[in-house]
Write a structure and sequence with these properties.
The chain has three domains: 63 residues, no CATH class; 309 residues, Nitrilase/N-carbamoyl-D-aminoacid amidohydrolase (4-Layer Sandwich); 343 residues, HUPs (Rossmann fold, 3-Layer(aba) Sandwich). Helices cover 39% and strands 15% of the residues. α15 crosses α16, α18 runs antiparallel to α19 and α22 crosses α23. The two termini are 52 Å apart.
């Protein structure tokens, strides 16, 4: 019967056993595995060779600092920790190198790995052949260099053994009788596996086949490396991190990305959510843009994160030059990059949302493994996420539907406008109808709908007088919105009309016996919906009279929150041009129209007035009768915050607690981050308690009470990847679903500010 660990720690032979392991050049990871003790014990022992800690002291130390078991659930409970929400922090590292000096290069690698660890990075990727340097040429055939490379790998493994992170370094390795260009994956002092380059280039300035064989010529699937036996090797290794769901990474090397079908494409289909690329791409003029496009494109095709590290300062400039360009992308979007042509080491650090990537893949039926895709081997990597408060580095836009870059925003507004116009124009062509009817309230939604109607007539070569625009004042219509509606209709030169709906509404209220008809100030939902229904009914009868289509005005935000009157109400129309446009985006569409004076100065002036008007359905009179007694946002929540929630709930299926985490990081400080052309006085911030409150409102309205309204919405064009809520578009759900799982998840949001 073998001795227990406790007995061995205190036994007389323990110190000799440990000394023997150290003398044999074993790494910390080897000793940890074989003796089953904490890495810190080993490091303390190795650093204290003179005093030689006694066996009893060593046993006591072991009991105090032995590493705990991985506890994923504990990390998942920390609201302020990025790793609780499916993020993984990564670093693309560009260290200083010296040509053919592995000891120096290993030391610089360790320095940069340590800097990355201080920022709670879990995956640090270093350049191609970084331990030797890429530009060694025929020095790769020198035995002294290859031995020194192995020493460098050991040094990096040893020095990073306590860092609780994955470090991927590039190195030339001799396997059997050939050299291979490799990426060595290190974790906790051990070599988890060795990735091998599939496509060594041999054209123009590259002649790698002079030195290296491609991965397909590997004669083995495992090797003994740096005293460690049976290390997996090849171009078919997907590394699965045990303690972090959805974190699976693959390593390809430089030219592999340039191939017609990169190995990472197959890796992604085998489950890899993050691709690491160890590169030594030299720089020629304009190549940086090509790299960015290539990395972004491959991350999009793979629906993956892509961590690209490149050689930089120190490589030989005998015939080539290097810019140290490291890039991190996620599903087609660049998140971070290093400064090019810097003599200082560079690190591009950011988070990759592996949870989002996994969810995205679930919805893509085209993302599937076929018989032609080879099976990859899985390599388990034991790693735990760091604990404590770790907030994201990457920025989450406050307005996910609205680009922050002004030029991109203008281009996006132009494109959305064209989509809306083309959708309505096609419907008119198909039906043979040449007239339109639209209700104009002086609010945001009807304003944008009227703009689309006018542009559609211009597109079809029809007179704008074919648009019948009607204001229909009710019991709470303000003088301001009434005036804005009138001015706008005149400025756009459409056919205008005003129909006072109050007499018809009073008759309806009398007919149904409502208290308001008897002089009581009863402003309930019936009172509101009688007005909304009367307006819609009037529009449909006007459409019959004019042989026209009724153009809807309701937007995506209202559909998400159920803020519309079902049936004969503002939910219904013949065609709804705003169906997939959220409220926050409609404001920018109107502002873009005004800023470009698309309908002249008079129209632009009234458009700016409409943008500065408080959002209200104007159905309930105020106490003094002079202004509406309703504020939409006081009931359903701030549209800017609810649009944020709508985007992440409908587009990605995130849990409320994750949405709250993202919203809190985006909205808790009005002075942080970028704003898309919003004046300082109009910039808001929200506490976590406010975010949680409005999330609960959203969950109840979206998941429980409003789906029946979305199940029978009119046709309308989808304008963006944020999604549409039509059952014929992006979203299909039962009308009688429960909201219990989402309400339960709300409990994971702290009640107080963290």
């Amino acid at each position: 019967m073998g001795d227990s660990k406790e007995t061995r720690y205190g036994g007389p032979d323990f110190r000799q056993e440990l000394e023997r392991f150290i003398a044999e050049g074993k790494t910390v990871g080897d000793i940890v595995r074989d003796l089953g003790i904490s890495p810190e014990i080993i490091n303390r022992w190795k650093q204290d060779e003179k005093s030689r800690i006694g066996a009893s002291a060593l046993a006591a130390l072991a009991g105090k600092v032995r590493a705990p078991e991985i506890d994923v659930s504990a990390s998942r409970r920390e609201f302020t920790n990025i790793y609780s929400h499916g993020f993984v922090r990564v670093a693309a590292c560009v260290p200083e190198v010296r040509v053919s000096d592995p000891a120096f290069n290993a030391a610089k690698t360790v320095e940069l790995a340590g800097a990355a660890k201080e920022r709670n990075v879990l995956l640090a990727v270093f350049p191609e052949l970084g331990i030797s340097s890429y530009s060694c040429g025929d020095l790769f055939f020198q035995e002294a260099l290859l031995r020194s490379v192995l020493d460098g790998i050991r040094a990096v493994a040893d020095a990073t053994s306590l860092m609780e992170m994955v470090v991927v370094v590039g190195a030339p390795l001799k396997i059997r009788d050939a050299l291979y260009n490799c990426g060595v994956v290190l974790c906790n002092g051990r070599i988890a596996g060795v990735a091998v380059k599939s496509f060594p280039p041999n054209y123009r300035e590259f002649y790698e086949l002079r030195h290296f064989r491609p991965a397909r010529e590997l004669p083995v699937e495992t090797i003994d490396l740096c005293g460690q036996r049976n290390v997996p090797v090849g171009a078919d290794l997907v590394f699965e991190v045990d303690g972090i769901p959805d974190f699976r990474f693959y390593c390809e090397i430089c030219e592999d990305l340039w191939a017609p079908v990169p190995p990472s494409s197959y890796a992604a289909l085998n489950g890899a959510t993050v691709i690491a690329n160890l590169s030594a791409s030299n720089i020629t003029t304009g190549k940086d843009d090509y790299r960015r496009n290539l990395v972004a494109s491959q991350s999009a095709r793979c629906v993956a994160g892509y961590v690209y590290s490149a050689a930089g300062p120190g490589e030989s400039t005998t015939d080539l030059a290097w810019d140290g360009h490291a890039i991190v992308c996620e599903n087609g979007v660049q998140l971070a990059e290093t400064e090019r042509f810097s003599w200082k080491p560079g690190v591009a650090v950011t988070e990759i949302d592996v949870d989002r990537l996994s969810r995205e893949r679930m919805t893509l039926t085209s993302f599937s493994k076929t018989e032609t895709v080879p099976d990859f081997r899985r390599v388990s990597v034991p790693l735990r996420a760091p604990f404590g408060k770790i907030l994201p580095i990457r920025e989450f836009p406050r307005f996910p539907y609205v680009p922050q870059d002004p030029a991109l925003r203008d281009r996006r507004c132009s494109e959305i406008s064209e989509i809306q116009v083309q959708g309505l124009a096609k419907r008119m062509k198909t039906t043979g109808v040449t007239n339109l009817v639209v209700g104009v309230s002086g609010g945001l939604d009807s304003t944008q709908a009227l703009i689309v109607c006018a542009k559609t007539m211009d597109c079809l070569g029809l007179p704008r007088r074919n648009v019948g625009a009607f204001s229909m004042p009710g019991f709470a219509t303000s003088a301001r919105t009434r005036d804005s509606a009138s001015r706008l209709m005149k400025a756009l030169r459409v056919d205008t009309g005003e129909i006072d709906i109050r007499p018809a509404c009073i008759q309806m209220l009398k007919d149904i016996g409502h208290p308001f008809a008897q002089g009581k100030q009863e402003f309930d939902v019936t009172f509101e919906n009688v007005q909304a229904g009367q307006r819609t009914s009037t529009l449909f009868r006007l459409a019959n009279l004019r042989r026209a289509l009724v153009v809807g005005t309701g937007d995506l935000s209202e559909l998400a929150l159920g803020w519309c009157t079902y049936g004969v109400g503002d939910q219904m129309s013949h065609y709804n041009v705003n169906a997939s446009v959220p409220k926050t985006l409609i404001q920018y569409l109107i502002r873009w129209t005004a800023a470009n004076n698309q309908f002249g100065l008079d129209a632009s002036t009234v458009l700016y007035d409409i943008l500065n008007t408080e959002i209200s359905p104007e159905l309930v009179p105020g106490k003094d009768g002079s202004a509406p007694g309703q504020s939409t946002e006081a009931v359903v929540g701030p549209y800017e915050l609810q649009d944020f929630t709508t985007y992440y709930i409908t587009r990605y299926g995130f849990s409320p607690s994750k949405v709250a985490f993202l919203a809190w990081n985006a909205w808790r400080d009005r002075g942080a981050g970028a704003w898309p052309d919003i004046p300082p006085a109009s910039r808001h911030e929200y506490t976590l308690a406010e975010i949680r409150h409005w999330l609960s409102v959203f969950v109840r309205r979206f998941f429980r009470t409003s789906q029946f309204k979305r199940s029978c919405v009119p046709d309308g064009p989808k304008v963006g990847s944020g999604g549409a809520l039509s059952p014929r578009g992006d979203y299909r759900a039962p009308s009688d679903g429960e909201d219990a799982p989402w309400l339960e998840d709300l409990r994971n949001i702290p009640g107080e500010e963290p």
